[in-house]
């Protein structure tokens, strides 16, 4: 694919295809966003949460991070990475951190609240994030779980930025 073809190519479709190949859908990520935010934005629906996920997925830098991370997971699953990277990625070594660094590029798209949100979901592993973290059936998801968490964190941050009065009110901060 040359540069002109890349610019004309709809990377969002490619991202959605790659997520689907890893058994991840926007609705699953939207469910995480809904759980993160519905206590602060009381009129939030799962559909609005999923819509926020789609807005995050539409950003080119997010698409690049997802495509890169999922490609590395796929290569690791196929045992095609060079050693010692293969073993490190396959075992999701705790001190590796590159998976979180790629994910962090997504979290900051909507400011520092995205980073805070990511720390929470990376620790608690809600929904599909926890399932991906289990690395079932020999499938490597070292990057996938963090990427999903980052998209959820950014989508939640986006909603907070779009609804500051509701967020402040429900944090107990008086909004004039």
Question: SSE layout and pairings?
Answer:
Layout: H1 3-8, H2 11-21, H3 26-37, H4 46-57, H5 60-77, H6 85-90, H7 98-107, H8 112-124, H9 128-133, H10 144-162, H11 164-170
Helix content range of the residues, please? 55-70%
Order of helices and strands: HHHHHHHHHHH
| Intertermini distance | 53 Å
State which percent range the strand residues make up. Answer: under 5%
Number of domains: 1
Query: How is the main sheet built?
Result: none
How large is the count of helical segments?
11
What's the architecture in CATH terms? Orthogonal Bundle
- So, the CATH homologous superfamily? PgpA-like
What is the name of the CATH class? Mainly Alpha
Q: What is the average per-residue confidence, as pLDDT, rounded to a whole number? A: 91
Based on secondary structure, the structural category is mainly alpha
**Overall 3D form:** globular
Rg computed from alpha carbons, rounded to a whole number of angstroms = 17 Å
GO molecular function, one term: phosphatidylglycerophosphatase activity
InterPro entries: PgpA-like_sf (IPR036681), Put_PGPase (IPR026038), YutG/PgpA (IPR007686)
Pfam families: PgpA
Organism: Periweissella cryptocerci
Describe the structure.
The chain has helices spanning 3-8, 11-21, 26-37, 46-57, 60-77, 85-90, 98-107, 112-124, 128-133, 144-162, 164-170. The protein is an all-alpha fold and 176 residues long. It has one domain: PgpA-like (YutG-like). Helix 2 (11-21) packs parallel to helix 5 (60-77), helix 3 (26-37) crosses helix 10 and helix 7 (98-107) runs parallel beside helix 10. The radius of gyration is 17 Å and the shape is globular. The termini are far apart. The mean pLDDT is 91. GO terms for molecular function: phosphatidylglycerophosphatase activity. This is Phosphatidylglycerophosphatase A. InterPro entries: PgpA-like_sf (IPR036681), Put_PGPase (IPR026038), YutG/PgpA (IPR007686). Residues 24-161 form the YutG/PgpA domain.
């Amino acid at each position: 694919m040359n540069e002109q073809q890349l610019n004309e190519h709809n990377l969002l479709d490619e991202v959605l295809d790659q997520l689907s190949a890893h058994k991840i859908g926007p609705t699953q990520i939207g469910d995480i966003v809904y759980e993160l935010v519905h206590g602060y934005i009381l009129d939030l629906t799962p559909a609005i949460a999923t819509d926020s996920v789609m807005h995050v997925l539409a950003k080119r830098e997010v698409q690049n991070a997802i495509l890169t991370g999922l490609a590395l997971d796929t290569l690791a699953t196929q045992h095609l990475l060079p050693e010692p990277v293969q073993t490190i990625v396959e075992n999701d070594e705790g001190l590796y951190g590159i998976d979180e660094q790629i994910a962090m590029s997504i979290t900051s798209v909507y400011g520092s609240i995205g980073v805070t949100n990511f720390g929470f979901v990376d620790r608690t592993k809600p929904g599909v994030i926890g399932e991906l973290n289990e690395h079932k059936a020999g499938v490597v998801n070292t990057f996938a779980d963090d990427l999903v968490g980052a998209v959820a964190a950014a989508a939640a941050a986006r909603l907070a930025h779009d609804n500051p009065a509701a967020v402040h009110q429900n944090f107990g901060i008086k909004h004039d």
